[in-house]
Amino acid sequence: MNHNQPSTETLPTAISRRDVLARAGCGFGMLGLAGLMQDEGLLDTATAADRLGARALQPMAPQPSHFPAKATRVIWIFVNGGPSHVDTWDYKPGLTKWNGKSMQEFDPKFDNMTGFFKNSVGGLMQSPFKFTPRGECGKMVSEIFPYLGEHADKMAFIHSGFAESNNHSPALFMMNTGFARMGFPCVGSWMTYGLGSESRNLPGFLVMSDPKGRGLPKGHAANWGAAFLPGVYQGTHLRPKGPPIDNLVHPAAMTDSTQRAQLDLLKQLNGLHSERFPADSELSARLQSFELAYRMQSAAPEAIDIAAEPKHIQDLYGIGKANCDHFSRQCLVARRLVERGVRFVQIYSGGMENQRSWDGHSDIKGNHTQFAGETDQPVGALLTDLDQRGLLDETLIVWCGEFGRLPVAQTGKKPGRDHNPHCFTAWLAGGGTKGGVTYGESDEVGFRAAVDKVHVNDLHATILHLMGMDHERLTYKYNGRQFRLTDVAGEVIHKVIA
After folding, report:
1. For 315-343, what is the mean pLDDT?
2. Kindly report the CA angle at 221 between 218 and 226, in degrees rounded to 5?
3. 174 plus 87 within the same structural domain
């Protein structure tokens, strides 16, 4: 036997030139695919455990969006109480034509149960306000918005929104969380959960409510709660009176160096704990919240100090004017917050209900004149200020309430309008939206959404899309199910996106 002859069992299998080219081609293709996935942010070399661990330690760290975002932050002007679309932005000459006639004449299906007060329903009522064309787009705008009307060319109007409840609390929950019942995370919580915050020194999600003693919106803090998401993603409510945040100033007996020493000791003790229990991230996350609170003690007072703004900016917002000073201050603070990296700011106009908010059951003219007067100049100034600072392109402004109001009169000494979940108007500005466009239509008198209907889920999907988030991919597993802001529905309204 010739021991120098190699065994046929160890001989390599012959490879043809075609095989070599095919295998090499696949290899180069995989390298190219990997490069493309890396460029698109789809290739992550970290393990799931690594990512979860890092997120637990720094839950508010900036996170990549699903695709390139048009907006990086949101300011939502929540018009609490249900503004009347037919008296603000949705011009209806049909109401003048049908004024005083029975709603059943126009719509036989109307059964007086649509609103909240079924025993005080009158006839169709024309708007008490004059509408005039504004901007190059010629948008018909109510006279109660002299300042905001100047920005019609920046706004994308949605006139075919509809909700699911005619009652404030569930309608507020629906508009804020996508569900008409308590116990679900709100838009701001989903936003900060998905994207984190650009600020290390301020919360990612801040809320401001009515400072004139008219109360919180119905449902209170559940409107800006995180529900089953980690608590760090809930909105931080800035108190309208007194200290805006608890413990913003440390006790007189404690110095900065003493407080810093305490946090350093906690960090050292936590390090010892982490060595013994490396999988336990809850304590580290709690320490991160302590560190944020410590940094906020210097950052938050500076951020909300509008006295630092020049006089011409304060005058622009209406600071010092009796009717709008409170809301002017909140809008100016909102601009300062987003300028410093806060992801989501929500401002509520109006308090609990009825004449304390846009809930104009009686005297729709007086009610809407008052609340438009409180908000018109401040919100108009916010749009102007963001625009001149180059921030409007990346800041999405949302103007919306929880539902609309009926085209019929609610009878009384001074007629008002009852709740209408079948139709509402919202507008978006900045943040990658098209300006001067209108999407959808209500019927001739503004009773129902009639053309290109927009559900609340669709509005949420569009807001997330502008922020670079796919509403179907932004999920959180709870009780064995993957939940999302838009539940199992939602379509992006591409026609309002630039």
Report:
1. 97
2. 130
3. yes
